[in-house]
Amino acid sequence: MATRGRFRLVLTGGTGMVAMLMVGGTAGCTVGGGGKLAAGNSGEPMTITPANGTAQVKPDGTIQVKAADGKLQKVTVQGEGATITGKFGDDRKTWSSTRTMTPGTSYTVTAQARDDGKTRTVTSSFTTLKAAQTLSIVDVTPNVEGEKVGVGMPIIVRFDRPVTDKAAVERALRVKPDKPVEGAWRWVAPDQVIYRTKTYWQPHQKVAFHATLAGVNAGGGVYGAKDAQATLHIGAAQITTGDMRKHHMTVTRDGEKLRTIPFSAGNGQTREYTTTSGVHLLMGKGNPVTMTAPGRKPGDPGYYKTVVDHAVRFSNSGEFVHSAPWSVGSQGSANVSHGCINVSPANARWYYDIMQRGDVIKLTGTDREVEWDNGWGYWQLSFDKWRQGSALG
Q: Which of 187, 206, 270, 326 is found 20 to 30 A from 391 (Cα to Cα)?
């Protein structure tokens, strides 16, 4: 068979070494093996970085493919780790990965280029560095399968260790609602970051959370171990508004009034017994819940221990909407509680049954404002103040 030409393949590794492979070609021949020309005719080389056989590739490195002549048709990256995406550039003469890789993983890059009607294929297999320390997400709230949440719901992400390079990690966090709205992350602890929107979520939609964390350099020699994802199901827009001077609260759903409920709030004799004003979120519920006087033990002045039914929490300072049959006579006319919102057993059961975590409850009428970091009081901050807690400015 007559020889028609010779082909050259150059694979450039992250260490700067270049492997030159001279292949004798004949018309229609196929040369197998990783990193070798699989099909084609003559032409200038394609290069893949990292080169075939390279080990200890940094997970936050970039895969690059270049075609000296012709155009790249297709580039795929296969491996058991994170799915690697990329984009073409320079009129499809180049391709670069657009995300990081999973530590300690083998990947194979397959690139096809077409020149003068001929297609050629090159492959390169390499392994990434196995990180001594990794970073993982251990909890995303809300995290209950199929749960519908309210329009004020934050996304709370907690990691398994403190994050050194918060900006790098925050760049890997994506939030995509079906109905777009502006939002921002705020770091509240070295191992916890929270997402809040500028305005409430639109009701009746899904919100996708995706952390492309695998391979992210989180600082101090720590790399992201794996990606994480979650889906929020935003339910109806249930908003409760109450004035503690008028002792009534109104509950609406998607703008329509459901019920007006008489209540009794904190008696205000001390700061502890003053119900907080401001924008709260419903955080959870229990039936029954045992309530005790904070910071007091049996025998101390002011000590109490009471079991209540159908309790819905709205702060971390012991505030609930709950059943209080003992104060029905004051509900709608006077504030006599230790700080909770007392309602009748029937109203408490109804409120308990319809509540969604993340529902908004706005209370007015006292001089004690809920702190933004008391429970989920995040809406107490303006959005400009909120996003000042982002590592990205």
A: 206
